[in-house]
Amino acid sequence: MSLPLFPLSTVLFPGCQLDLQLFEARYLDMLGRCMKQGSGFGIVGILEGQEVGMPASQIALVGCEALIRDWQQRPNGLLGIRVEGGRRFRVNSSWVQPDQLTCADVEWLDEAPDLPLLGEHADLAALLQVLAEHPLVDNLGMSGNASSQQALANQLAYLLPFSIEEKTALLELRSPAQRLAQIQLLLEQLQGTLSA
Known about the structure:
The protein is α+β, with helices and mostly antiparallel strands. The chain has 2 domains: about 1-110, Archaeosine Trna-guanine Transglycosylase, Chain: A, domain 4 (Roll), CATH 2.30.130.40; about 120-195, Up-down Bundle (Methane Monooxygenase Hydroxylase, Chain G, domain 1). It has 6 helices and 6 strands. It has a 5-stranded mixed β-barrel with strand order 1-3-4-5-6. Helix 2 (about 120-130) packs across helix 4 (about 150-160) and helix 4 (about 150-160) runs parallel beside helix 6. The longest helix has 20 residues, at about 175-195. The protein is globular, with a radius of gyration of 17 Å.
């Protein structure tokens, strides 16, 4: 399947919300096509390059579908949209169109069955509730209440200050239990770095 891509310096996860500001012609045209077709676009992390101007020279090969949930003109006159993460995908090949929009041939990734939270996830669930109190997170409408392993893993992976490479590796994991275990490991490494 061919999918237009929006490379960013962040990684979107299924079920999470992201606000974007559009001003480049390639993305305004892409948005118009998506809204006419009732389709989404793909968000991938930038490994090398910039968000604005020339297309990123290297993008992550795993990304998340962005489904348009709302749009409005911002006070600065630019178009703002809110997207929600949909399905995960792998990039099989990508190319840059004449209008400088990056597109990709993608395959959708299967999701493992979702499971309820366990007692061992209590600390991570509490961390998510603390993160949800931050005004930026609150503005996105993310409540911080995760009712399953998948929701907890996706929201923490999205909100915590991990690198693009670490977030992409988390997005690639099929199992929510594996994602939560890796988040715990990354948090321990982060705490070790901060206390050193």
